[in-house]
Specification:
It is a single chain. The chain is an alpha+beta fold. It has 2 domains: 117 residues, no CATH class; 101 residues, Immunoglobulin-like (Sandwich). The chain contains 6 helices and 9 strands, in the order ααααααβββββββββ. The strands form 2 sheets. A 5-stranded antiparallel sheet has the order 2-9-8-5-6, with no helix packed on it. The protein has a 4-stranded antiparallel sheet with strand order 1-3-4-7, covered by helices on one side. A hairpin with a 5-residue loop joins strand 3 and strand 4. Helix 1 crosses helix 2. The protein is rod-shaped, with a radius of gyration of 49 Å.
């Protein structure tokens, strides 16, 4: 039997580790390995890598005739060297370099090439899985930030609405003070008609002013679905809807479309909570 040199043995070790040698080469390698400690150690490394590669692919048992058919079809005279990143070199790169080297004797099967492909796709699949996980994490973070932005916008809208209400109340308070301090202002009693004797409704205004101050005390309490409403009657006797108020109102700003001196009368009625465009409920007080 021919005796192989160490260089020849090491050249065949990758194929031996993948069980891709023919019946002539295998015995030669097996006979030479015990006599070379370096070859034996290198074989252990190749076998470890081969075992890891085979574990990546799903286990399957090909038909007995498939290997012979694949070996006949896989013989090539030159293969293009596959370029790998620097960090991938090592035993795995040695296997790939060996598989990619020029040869006239078939030393590898399509099954071995498939294993290498499975590893490549496996690594690519892991990278894609990691990228997909990162993308989902970024999407979740973006959704969380959008929710936070919506919450902040809601709070800002609420605070803006509150600020507008405060500004409106401040303007109303200033108008009330102006009406109260007007030396030409007069106070009109809207007389009780269907109200208890202790109930009072006063309207203070000056004839040439379009703002008045309504003061109310001791009116009967209404249901949650009702409110008191002030009416201004123009020169033709048409009722103009005005301020809504409850049974206790010490200072309600009343703004009229015309100077208060142009109206011939004032009255109070009970209306639905949102008010009415014309009197629908009982009139409980009239000025004169």
């Amino acid at each position: 039997m021919k005796q192989l040199t160490c260089d020849e043995v090491r050249e065949l070790l990758p194929a031996y580790a993948l069980d891709a040698l023919n019946d002539t080469e295998r015995p030669l390698v097996e006979a030479a390995i015990p006599g070379c400690e370096g070859c034996a150690e290198l074989l252990v490394e190749y076998q470890s890598v081969a075992t890891g590669l085979l574990q990546v692919a799903p286990a399957s048992q090909p038909p007995p005739a498939l290997r012979a058919s694949l070996l006949r079809q896989a013989g090539v005279t030159q293969l293009t060297t596959i370029s790998k990143p620097a960090h991938s070199r090592g035993i795995l790169q040695s296997l790939v370099d060996w598989l990619s080297s020029a040869t006239s004797t078939p030393r590898w099967s399509l099954a071995a090439a498939a294993v290498i492909a499975v590893v490549g796709f496996g690594l690519l699949g892991n990278q894609l899985s990691n990228l997909s996980s990162q993308a989902r994490a970024l999407a979740d973070q973006a959704a969380s930030q959008q929710d936070l932005a919506k919450q902040l916008q809601t709070r800002l809208d609420t605070q803006s609405a509150t600020l507008r209400q405060m500004e409106g109340q401040l303007v109303a308070d200033r108008r009330i003070v102006q009406v109260a301090a007007d030396g030409a202002a007069r106070t009109v009693l809207i007389a009780n008609k269907q109200l208890p004797p202790t109930s009072t409704v006063y309207l203070r205004f000056s004839d040439n002013n379009q703002a008045a101050v309504l003061s109310v005390a001791n009116l009967p309490q209404l249901s949650d679905q009702q409110t008191y409403q002030l009416w201004l009657f123009d020169a033709t006797g048409k009722p103009i809807p005005s301020a809504l108020f409850s049974q206790v109102a010490t200072a309600v700003l009343v703004e009229a479309p015309s100077a208060l001196g142009s109206y011939k009368n004032f009255a109070v009625s009970i209306e639905p909570r949102a008010g009415s465009s014309s009197p629908t409920g009982p009139v409980v007080a009239v000025a004169y």
